[in-house]
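ok so i was messing around last nite and threw this chain in just to see what happens. nothing serious, just curious
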Amino acid sequence: AWLGTLFVFRRNLRETRRRATGFAERERATATLVQSIENDLMTCLVRGPAGGAGIDGTDTSLRILSRGVAIRSISGGQQGLFRDLQSTEVRFNAGGRTLEGRRAAADSTNAGSFSPFGGTIAKVRFRYYDGSRWLERFNSSAQDALPVAVEVAVWFQPWPGEAPDPAEEAARAAAEADPERLTFDATADPFDEDAVMDTETMLLPPPSPDRVRVIVIPDGGAP
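result:
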């Protein structure tokens, strides 16, 4: 009996460690996303030098033009001004269930590839407050203004009715197939809950996000 208990304890310990590691990766990815967006929104532009939007966002992606301290050339001319203008892009990769981002000089012809922040994320939603309502799309050039605020919402787990995370399912299957696992009854469960589609869950409102941050933009709103 004690040997069976030991096997169960070891399996549960591995599962707990796996879940803790996954949670830490999600937290780190979310913090990186929020910090990157918040920093860039503090110095973002309504539009860039070429007339492009300073903020161009959808519900799953966001591009921000921002700058730090304005730099003049040694000669005192204006050609050196805004040389530190940079473009930051973040997006949610639904297929890979990851947060991705990239940063480059705004006038660069090679923005580079997107890099994942790490962790497995179920869903991300960006929204933009124009002073009277929340929008799922925003273009500061077309609006001729910055949004008053940007909301970043992140869900760690799939919504009811959605497919579970493949990585989570694979890890769980591997744990259950552990040769050290002590099995007393190999009979298949005829009432497999995972195989039953609960149509009522499709009618429920979306669950609350695991992490949500509303970032207020200085000088946001109508000009």
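not much to say yet. The chain is about 25% helix and 25% strand.
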